[in-house]
Structure prediction request, 306 residues.
Amino acid sequence: MDMAELPLARLLLMATRLVADELNEGLRAAGHPDLRPTHGFALNGIGVNGATATQLAGLLGMTKQGVAKLVDSLVERGYVERERNVADGRSVLLVLSSRGRELLSRAEDVQRRLEAEWAEHVGPSQLSALRRGLEQIVRERHAGELPPLRPIW
Amino acid sequence: MDMAELPLARLLLMATRLVADELNEGLRAAGHPDLRPTHGFALNGIGVNGATATQLAGLLGMTKQGVAKLVDSLVERGYVERERNVADGRSVLLVLSSRGRELLSRAEDVQRRLEAEWAEHVGPSQLSALRRGLEQIVRERHAGELPPLRPIW
DNA sequence: GGCTTCGGTCAGCTTGGTTGTCTATTATCG
DNA sequence: CGATAATAGACAACCAAGCTGACCGAAGCC
Prediction:
């Protein structure tokens, strides 16, 4: 045991890296081997409601051209489908395919598994405290709201 | 307030993103405007003891050619100097320049500022709990050790 | 109807990282 | 010792993610 308290930022980075690795590993095992970092964020952004490319660009903080490429690769891999938008002939509605929804629910599985494991080691109340602390910190910086989930760099 | 507990992974991602933004912003303000994500990790890996390119490659989980490019850009920017290694003529010792050390200590400033701010909002004991929880979770998955600080993706 | 705005695409480029090959130095073992 | 193997790094080519810039068609607004 070391005396000094570790910088929280460092711990956050390490924990997040751990989660990312675990997600990658778990999804690979579940038949989703070739996921790139942004894929998850994009699928999450499209979600159950669908989204247009421009909305997604705003959400992820990248250009619509960048999103176009990203979406191409998601369509190729069978996670996303483009639907023509009846309300607005300019835009294309992006929706999750069943495979896309399946991927998201696998990701949730991994998260649940991780949390259960953590609860086992640090205790459920401690884990709750951790959750509350993080939530408060995040909300604090975003006017009480939760920010969109974006790739980190 | 929402009833459902948010997935911890999501909170971690948001908090980490927050920290990353804050670090970028703070360092930009301190005269380090053009930092790329891996720069910080590399400088941290070199640290006060210095390191060789191959060591750094292992630490960051990338190829030594990749590291070579990375180090080039750090040398260009004046953060790192290459010293000839007396003990082993094949390898080159990478060390932080004074500007590099200055950068790291600015990063620590930002972290301290953030932690103080957090302590103010969630309370110091809550913050301690958060730190302990994260530390335990991270150590758990690395045989009790702290893993090296690596870029997340 | 005609200007403006907006969603998306096409083309070209930058760049952070990769694989693959090569040289120079050090380590090993007869 | 000297020959051979292993190691640190350099050079070159390539790849892919995301960017900028120019453009087109659909929709909104007088």
